[in-house]
């Protein structure tokens, strides 16, 4: 197997493809409810029409959050990272069966969590805060999804270790390096949710515990819940750093900066979950302040990313003849749907980053917390930076995996534009009406207190949501038509995996950016300092007092 001729095997392509099938199906089902919510805000309540099938607004909201934010992402990511790990190392998975077992464990978990969701036995929303109580199968199912993703991750590590043995001293190829960090970060992060599921929610839902401690559970949840957002984001960053520059004819501006950003995400993603708990009475203010400050530090690797990725794009735009300060931007291949989608994702993320900064500010958070501002923020992040990037990636990935031609690329460009425009309208309206005080997770169309000055913004929520609805199913159509097309692409139409060269030989990147031990020790130490005392305190003072509630 020589380096230059490495091809991903047909069976591994199929295996990665399975991840995508489940991801896209979850996205198609979960996205049915997004527009229903947006329309409801705008005063067009369609829920009564689907009433026999779905019991409440909150069942729909839970399906939307779980299927889109948790399932679409996790399945897409584990599939995509499989590709980046093996393609970067130019070698097959060391233990392919381990990865297969991991994937099918995720599928079993998905089915197990999906059944109570559809039966309205788990309408607890995607954060499943107790004392809202779901059927035990929901908790067990989600746990299995996480366990499956761990197994796939171990499969990556074994593959990497085998490569390292054969290649001492060689810098880990960037796409593999970044994928491994993403997975390690995820495995550390999910310790929180593992503790929550195994020691609290599962025994409680099975009747083995008299009650549950909501405060401790929120702390466990956000231990995982915050880094979860970087588990979603980092695969998009892998594409922005290492693939998008190639797609626009440029080079990765700095291999060292790219690696440094990923190490910083490993170091800083976990120990700041209290920024989701600024209003929790059980967490002392000093700890909230520490997590607020740490949140500002994790802003830094995203700023590094903005700089490095835009500089990389500039090398492409200039190579394509772009002149002047901004001329290179117009010279980028905007007609390539994969590129357009990812550029739009990046632009939307600039706004998402700004609203994140607002959220992170301890005092300003009190104004926006639990208002529609927050879903405004996370639709610019997970539903734009991440989801629109994944859509863009699938415009080359699905043709690559299937050997088919992308169905109607022009429509795919329109799809990206529609998502961009719909999201601008939707998220701006959500932010503004949130500032006016509109609560999140509330069927505002039914609320008697909605003042007239919200109505214009709520209408924009509905319009933006409607445009995104069209865009989303256009995406699903294009992907399905591509994947199930009977015609194979001609030889000269075959798609390759885009991997950008760095401007400097990665072998000249400092060695400390390719060594794990110190970074791992620092990561655990920082988590221990930032979370240890509070966790100990909350566990010692545990109060298993709250019964379970089923409100809807
Ligand atoms: Fe957040 C709440 C703070 C990033 C997701 N966030 C949420 C929730 C979700 C979420 C789902 O501090 C709601 C949870 C719930 O249900 O309660 N967030 C931040 C901060 C950042 C941030 C400081 N969030 C994300 C990302 C997410 C995500 C990423 C998903 C993927 N967030 C918060 C806080 C809360 C919160 C509080 C709690 C709010 C509350 O009160 O409940 C930062 O990491 C953001 C840094 C980003 C930047 C932007 C850099 C720009 C780049 C673009 C480059 C442009 C390109 C395009 C490439 C600094 C990298 C160029 C194009 C050309 C044409 C040239
Ligand atoms: Cu967060």
Describe it for me?
The structure is a single chain. This protein has helices at 10-30, 33-41, 47-50, 57-89, 96-118, 136-166, 174-189, 191-205, 214-242, 244-247, 255-268, 285-319, 327-330, 337-360, 362-368, 373-402, 409-435, 455-483, 517-540. The model has no long low-confidence stretch (mean pLDDT 96). It starts with 9 loop residues before the first helix and ends in a 12-residue tail after the last helix. It is 69% helix and 0% strand. It has 552 residues and is an all-alpha fold. The chain has a single domain, classed as Cytochrome c oxidase-like, subunit I domain (Cytochrome C Oxidase, Chain A), CATH 1.20.210. The chain is built from 19 helices and no strands. It binds heme-as and copper (II) ion.
So what's the oligomer here? single chain
Give me the CATH superfamily. Answer: Cytochrome c oxidase-like, subunit I domain
Q: Briefly, what CATH class? A: Mainly Alpha
Taking the alpha carbons of the first and last residues, their distance comes to 58 Å
What fraction of the residues are assigned to beta strands by DSSP?
under 5%
In CATH, the architecture is: Up-down Bundle
Please compute the radius of gyration using only Cα atoms: 23 Å
Structural class call reads mainly alpha
Mean pLDDT: 96
Helix content: 55-70%
